[in-house]
Amino acid sequence: MPLDTPRRLALFDLDNTLLNGDSDHAFGEYLIDNGLVDADAHRAANDRFYQEYVQNKLDIHAYVKFTLGPVLSLPSADLETLVSDYAEGVIKQMVTDEALTLVREHKEAGDYCTIITATNSLLTTPLAKAFGVDTLLATDLEQANGQLTGNIAGIPCFQQGKVEKLQQWLQEVGEQQGIGQQHSIFYSDSSNDLPLLEWSSEPVVVNPDEKLARIAEQKQWRRLDLHKP
């Protein structure tokens, strides 16, 4: 049965919003540091993809293939160990007290907390557990015979795709959880997230990129600084 009182839907972007850094780009550096790729070639490509993301020009299908390519042949147990080591040794350092406090305050208020990120589900599942959110919506990965293929499954959770993926998910669980667009808040740093910021009833920009900062000022959106220099 649906809840009588609507809950607020608290949506959080991950990279450079809850995290003080970018988990996808950091994974490329992790592979370099552990000697799993050619350092110069991989860093050049990794940096190029990141700049394309900043410029709102990223081909996310190509980026996912690039990100996962070096680890696709690993046995499942080895891949799980690698991701765990990466999360513990690299990403944990990007989690700030301010971000943890923000999520905790929403949880204590009874809000339904969701991380919604373009980064793939392989890398972000441990982070969702660390923040203790109710749901993770990420870019899902295709598998064949139990092995990752390097392709995206379904809608990429990126740009307009974030809205489409969220709406699809809300059709399945929104009524039961008493959540929806009318009582939603979304935190993001990136102009790639403009479609979801405009969709949400309360957009909040967090340490925004230059383009998003200009738009947020024009629209008088609330601004939050989680990551102090």
Provide an overview of this structure.
With 229 residues, this protein is α/β, with parallel strands linked by helices. It has one domain: HAD superfamily/HAD-like (Rossmann fold, 3-Layer(aba) Sandwich), CATH 3.40.50. The protein contains ten helices and eight strands. The chain has helices at 14-18, 23-33, 39-54, 60-68, 76-89, 97-108, 121-131, 160-177, 194-199, 210-219, and strands at 9-12, 112-120, 135-139, 141-144, 147-152, 184-188, 202-206, 222-224. The chain has a six-stranded parallel sheet. Helix 7 links the parallel strand 2 (112-120) and strand 3 (135-139). Helix 2 (23-33) runs antiparallel to helix 3 (39-54). It is globular, with a radius of gyration of 17 Å.
Give the name of the CATH superfamily: HAD superfamily/HAD-like
Q: Enumerate the spans where pLDDT stays under 50 for 5 or more consecutive residues.
A: none
The overall pLDDT, averaged over residues, is 94
Counted up, domains total 1
CATH class: Alpha Beta
Computed Rg: 17 Å
Q: How many β strands by DSSP?
A: 8
The sequence of SSEs as H and E is EHHHHHHEHEEEHEHEHE
**What portion of residues is helical?**
40-55%
> What fraction of residues sit in β-strands?
15-25%
Q: How is the secondary structure organized here?
A:
Layout: E1 9-12, H1 14-18, H2 23-33, H3 39-54, H4 60-68, H5 76-89, H6 97-108, E2 112-120, H7 121-131, E3 135-139, E4 141-144, E5 147-152, H8 160-177, E6 184-188, H9 194-199, E7 202-206, H10 210-219, E8 222-224
Parallel strand pairs: 1-2, 1-6, 2-3, 6-7, 7-8
Antiparallel strand pairs: 4-5
Helix pairs in contact: 2-3
